[in-house]
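Please fill in the sequence for the structure shown.

STRUCTURE ENCODING:
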């Protein structure tokens, strides 16, 4: 009986020793797993931070030379720069407007320049803020490029006086050396937009000055006052394509 008790004590001690070692091993494994989980969490967060950073995609122009356009259907004309067909090809006519600093802006300001133009109004609650944001992006992209300028026409010129445009320009970060916000004769602005820049897409619809002009399109004009592209000013991919096409146009 005594021997049995001694043997039982020995076995119990061995079992408790093994159990203690087992708990120690489990404890170490748990600590190791906890460390690995923390490391994985840190790596995951860092990865998410990188993924959340805005990435500007560099777009390459789809063509070696841009086409020309001369009517509202925007049918492309693939012409060489010395083509005789360009002699009587559509050009943007001369204009006279007043900008956000009450300066007179004519076609002379854009002489021998590439420029991007659009139509907006300062109290627009819909598409205009997004368009202006993308025009601001273009301003930053070509800020140090003296060959490229911007031109935005107000479609509510009676309300958008130079003082109103100036306040809007300050709020939107407009650089006057690069980008003019212009007001002026409403009939002239609407005629220019509809019949010369072809910014509206209502083909076959006759409109007069009382029909509101509202469009999200950006138009690319070359150094010879000819239309070379139309782009959706609300679409980032289209704006990136515009940037690429400006570079192509500069290389002509």
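FILLED IN BY: designer on duty
SEQUENCE:
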């Amino acid at each position: 009986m005594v021997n049995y008790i001694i043997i039982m004590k020995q076995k119990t001690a061995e079992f408790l020793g093994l159990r203690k070692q087992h708990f120690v091993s489990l404890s170490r494994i748990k600590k190791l797993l906890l460390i690995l989980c923390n490391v994985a969490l840190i790596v995951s967060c860092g990865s998410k931070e990188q993924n959340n950073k805005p990435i500007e995609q560099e777009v390459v122009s789809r063509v070696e030379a841009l086409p020309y356009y001369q009517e509202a259907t925007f049918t492309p004309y693939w012409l060489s720069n010395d083509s005789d067909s360009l002699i009587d090809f559509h050009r943007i006519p001369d204009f006279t407007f007043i900008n956000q600093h009450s300066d007179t802006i004519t076609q002379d300001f854009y002489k021998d320049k590439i420029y991007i133009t659009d139509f907006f109004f300062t109290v627009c609650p819909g598409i205009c803020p997004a368009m202006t944001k993308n025009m601001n992006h273009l301003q930053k992209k070509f800020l140090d490029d003296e060959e490229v300028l911007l031109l935005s026409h107000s479609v509510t010129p009676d309300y958008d006086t130079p003082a109103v445009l100036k306040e809007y320009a300050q709020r939107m970060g407009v650089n006057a050396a690069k980008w003019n916000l212009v007001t002026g004769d409403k009939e002239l602005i609407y005629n220019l937009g509809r019949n010369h820049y072809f910014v509206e897409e209502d083909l076959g619809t006759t409109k007069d000055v009382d029909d509101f002009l509202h469009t999200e399109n950006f138009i690319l004009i070359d150094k010879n006052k000819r239309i070379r592209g139309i782009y959706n000013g609300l679409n980032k991919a289209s704006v990136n394509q515009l940037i690429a096409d400006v570079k192509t146009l500069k290389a002509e």
